[in-house]
Automatic annotation (TrEMBL):
<dbReference type="InterPro" id="IPR017901">
    <property type="entry name" value="C-CAP_CF_C-like"/>
</dbReference>
<dbReference type="GO" id="GO:0007023">
    <property type="term" value="P:post-chaperonin tubulin folding pathway"/>
</dbReference>
<comment type="similarity">
    <text>Belongs to the TBCC family.</text>
</comment>
<dbReference type="InterPro" id="IPR012945">
    <property type="entry name" value="Tubulin-bd_cofactor_C_dom"/>
</dbReference>
<dbReference type="GO" id="GO:0007021">
    <property type="term" value="P:tubulin complex assembly"/>
</dbReference>
<protein>
    <recommendedName>
        <fullName>C-CAP/cofactor C-like domain-containing protein</fullName>
    </recommendedName>
</protein>
<dbReference type="InterPro" id="IPR027684">
    <property type="entry name" value="TBCC"/>
</dbReference>
<feature type="domain" description="C-CAP/cofactor C-like">
    <location>
        <begin position="68"/>
        <end position="204"/>
    </location>
</feature>
<dbReference type="GO" id="GO:0005737">
    <property type="term" value="C:cytoplasm"/>
</dbReference>
<dbReference type="InterPro" id="IPR016098">
    <property type="entry name" value="CAP/MinC_C"/>
</dbReference>
<dbReference type="Pfam" id="PF07986">
    <property type="entry name" value="TBCC"/>
</dbReference>
């Protein structure tokens, strides 16, 4: 009983510390433009959006954005940003095929239910689209991303040409990775701390311990900093801590 009581008090203090830290995070809101045009679906991620970039102002900060294009649904993109390891960017992805690309050193919070999410050429970004913040009804595509972390609640997860990214997942089907290395995986929700994630690696070379391949591994239960947090404030505080490491 004493051990459980101490654990409960420790968790309560942790959540309080997360909440206090999150209140002081710099925040910036980004909203996709709704100027959509009709285009055919190119299929490959590098052909998804070819329109010119625009400059938008949100909460007094300049944010590099791109005019969205239609690829059979509604698509929009956030691109060319640098958070300086301090900024949290809120993105409304409700009902969109959303693309976030060519950014670095920022926490990006995807709010609402996206139809699809594409992440490309991100460096040391923490992308959150899970829990009370958001989710993806369809697939999440990750390409050419380096370092950072991605937390997603989605139907599918496909990863290509990425290195050193940590994934916290609530995915209906088995995540798939190809031509990637040093990836780490953990469940987004794991109340008892025993759950693992199974990943299909197309460049499969099994590890001796059976916990992944030479290209990916399971995050140890004691190191899952984004798993099982109860509040948005706690998630944002933990994400900010990851960004600064």
């Amino acid at each position: 009983f004493d051990v459980r009581a101490c654990e409960a008090q420790s968790n309560a203090l942790r959540d309080l510390a997360h909440a206090l830290r999150a209140k002081h995070l710099p925040r910036r809101r980004f909203k996709f433009s709704q100027d959509f045009s009709r285009r055919g679906y190119a299929g490959a991620l590098e052909h998804v959006l070819e329109s010119a970039s625009d400059t938008s102002t949100a909460n007094g900060d300049d944010a590099r954005t791109a005019r969205p294009a239609d690829i059979g649904g509604r698509e929009a993109a956030l691109e060319n940003f640098d958070g300086g390891k301090t900024q949290v960017i809120d993105v409304d992805v409700s009902g969109l095929d959303a693309t976030i690309r060519d950014g670095r050193d920022a926490v990006v919070v995807c709010r609402g239910r996206a139809t699809a999410l594409r992440l490309a050429r991100l460096t040391n970004c923490i992308v959150l689209c899970a829990g009370e913040m958001g989710s993806v009804d369809g697939p999440v595509y990750v390409e050419e991303c380096t370092q950072g972390a991605v937390a997603v609640d989605s139907r599918q997860l496909r990863i290509h040409d990425s290195q050193g990214v940590a994934f916290y997942v609530a995915v209906s089907s088995t995540p798939i990775m190809e031509d990637s290395s040093n990836l780490k995986f953990a469940p987004w929700r794991d109340e008892d701390g025993t759950g693992d994630v199974h990943v299909q690696d197309f460049n499969r070379v099994l590890r001796d311990d059976g916990m992944g391949t030479c290209n990916w591994s399971t995050i140890d239960a004691t190191s899952r900093v984004l798993t099982g947090l109860n509040t948005e404030e706690a998630v944002l505080s933990a994400a900010r801590g990851l960004l600064c490491t």
